């Protein structure tokens, strides 16, 4: 297996994860320095992600047309230049504009790096190569946030925007030197109407799901979701009468492909949901500092990376099915562990173990998902098909906070109403007490900005225990999702010899 190729592409893929992550983790410092308007903090955090959600499939389709390697290298250049300019941002408006441009650059990396891996190694090498790619990402995503937090404290927030260029430049050099050129699909037009409809569907879906955390009946929630549904219907009608649609709907007739996409959505749903749990429960109930919460991801990083590399080899030797099921079961075990042990006095090692199980399950599952999806890609359509996986993953990331908070708030309401009744408080008095809780937990559109003083704002109710009970029920319920997908995966996924 050509390690230089895999390393170069893994760095490009990691940029799309690390870049928005380090900004979100250090957003408070940027906010203070540039005096970001309160209503715009979430937009600044999620601007790049929103762009990626809207344009990921367009980038995959364009990559198939102009050449995978060419588009990836252009994306790396854009990310480098935009981030360097961001480091010299004179104000909030300039940085916001750079974040939108950065999203465009990262869109060229998101699905294209996996697609380029498919055509750069042999079919026999591909599963192991995917495992190595995910392993490199795991190590970097475990180390870089902790290092960045230390560096920002030492030299300031502008250092944040030097991380992505450092990774991108190394990736650019390795890609240019070692990755073989990929031919452009001459004469194959880009389905502009198709990618526009899918982009609109993805963008409005993400916006609507994020807004749902402030209430599902508000126009800010249901209008984008209706637009998304209409765009999907229009695309289906368009694809049926188009010779070469942006996304061939016939792919979804393949059971392995559909189950793999469901797994991609699930692993992102649970991973982002856990980060919400750690941010709220860790800071409010366990009184952990943001630095300690970030360090929860670090223990076992090398073990997870090693397990992911082994998972890739097992996929190559056997099939994606048992590896995917194992990863999903690990994620379910993480949720059930939290459901059974979470308490205001829980041992920190249990929280570390739950985090480790989620990371292990997510990356092992992702390895099997990537191999299954790429194996279904027709010749010349690797970019588009790989981008579909990314689109489902981003949908899961948007669904995670929304569903977790909706469940949590529902269970939490039952608890505080019972508590209020036992204390002879009226519903209105109790509602006023927890209003700060609800507003603090609301996620801004496109970002994940939470108030770390969630329960400290409340008074008059015994909210600490209620918080824990609501969290237990939420984790118990969401843990059934990976079990259901694992059950589906046991039936349709083929053995390696049956894959195309």
Structure in words:
With 500 residues, this protein is mainly α. The protein folds into 3 domains: 1-180, MFS general substrate transporter like domains (Growth Hormone, Chain: A, Up-down Bundle), CATH 1.20.1250; 191-245; 254-500, MFS general substrate transporter like domains (Growth Hormone, Chain: A, Up-down Bundle), CATH 1.20.1250. 76% of the residues lie in helices and 0% in strands. It has 19 helices and no strands. Helix 1 packs antiparallel against helix 6 and helix 15 runs antiparallel to helix 16 (382-422). The chain is globular and about 75 Å long. The two termini are 20 Å apart. Residues 436-464 and 495-500 have low confidence and may be disordered.
Salient structural properties:
500 residues, mainly alpha, Growth Hormone, Chain: A, 3 domains, 19 helices, disordered C terminus
The coarse silhouette is globular
Note the total helix count: 19
CATH architecture of the largest domain: Up-down Bundle
* Strand fraction: under 5%
CATH topology value of the largest domain:
Growth Hormone, Chain: A
Into how many domains do the coordinates divide? 3
Order of helices and strands: HHHHHHHHHHHHHHHHHHH
Total beta strand runs: 0
Helix percent reads over 70%
* Largest sheet entry: none
Q: Kindly name the structural category.
A: mainly alpha
Taking pLDDT < 50 over at least 5 consecutive residues as the criterion, the unreliable ranges are 436-464, 495-500
